[in-house]
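Meet our chain:
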Amino acid sequence: MLQNLKIALLTKEQNVWFIRAEKGKYAKHFRAGGVIAIEHLERAYEGNIPSELPTEEFLKAQLLINEKYSEFRDNTDGKESRKLNRSGFNILSQIKRFANEIKRGDLIVTRNEKDDGYSFGICSETIPYIDHTPIRVPTTKKDGTPGFERSSLDYKLRKRVIWGPSISRSELPGAVRKATSGQQTVTSLNNHKEKIFHLIYPFFTDGESLFFSNKIKTAHRVNALAIGKLFQNVALIKSFSEMLLSEELSDLSQLTHFIESAVLLGKSDIVTCQAEFMSPGDMWCRIPLVGETLTNQIFAAVLACLLLTGQVNAEEIASLTNNEATPTLAIKKDTGDIFSDKYKTPAISQKLRSIAKAAGSQAANIENQEHSIIEVKKSLNLSITKVDTEKLEGFEFGINVLEIGKTHENR
């Protein structure tokens, strides 16, 4: 698992949008056409769509001549004039938001058909376009010949999207389900950005914190003692990662007083959590990153997270340093900006090797002592997010990630 692990890089510029596809009716068409599309131009022009997106002035004028979208109102001078009603204003604002606010690199979420899941994609072009060609979904007929599904997507206002993975709706936290259950076609999910990323990446970082999530997969009543112990173990992550960085190893039980003193002193650089214990449920953690070289901190914190929730063992960690191998934590795409520069590390880092060796030693101690970490994992059926996100990353404006790997030194 370690050598397939990715830590997503979270940028402030990237927005998250939910695009409604008629309760999933057109989700297949979105994926088949590599697009998102909305119907609002059809409503404004009642089918007679121009070949180019009209300006806001022309859109408003078109809506004002339609009695469904406008009404007479008194002006301050006592005269009446047509003004947009609520429906007209909504159409105009949704077209403007779709055309002007969704940009290249933004994360797109839409509800799927039938299975009630959700698909994730990346907007690949900022400029919207109008296309009069219906989008049809390829299929295979009973005799094996290629064909198309009967339904087609005729919405003409579109933006290009590169689609990636889909997940079940049951995986969504309650707050996100609520945010995606409204009536607006285009909805910002920026207020839920962290929870959205938790759905597709086990780890991500904004350069100031490392975010980590656990999935509680048990479908039974949650063991309160196991939950309490999980929180206690997670609270140790920051101190444990600092111990790995310093290579001054001690028993885990000796770290408890650090946590207690941090709480009593009201320190801000402690691990914080949010949780939904719905059996199944989720716990989301934030680990502050300060001081030490960023890549070293992230590497140590990732190993601490995985060890303290029982997700890796000594053998897996040892694989990073066996046969004279040296661990690496490399950025997938060098974008040449200040943000990505923060994550650069030498091709061969002896510090990462020493961190891995320290983590392997602690993993062996945990296993030998039959620490409650393993029992908590079994009791709650803990796991981490495992989603194939490759399609969201493999292009210029896709999500950038740090990847754990290893190199072999020449001796």
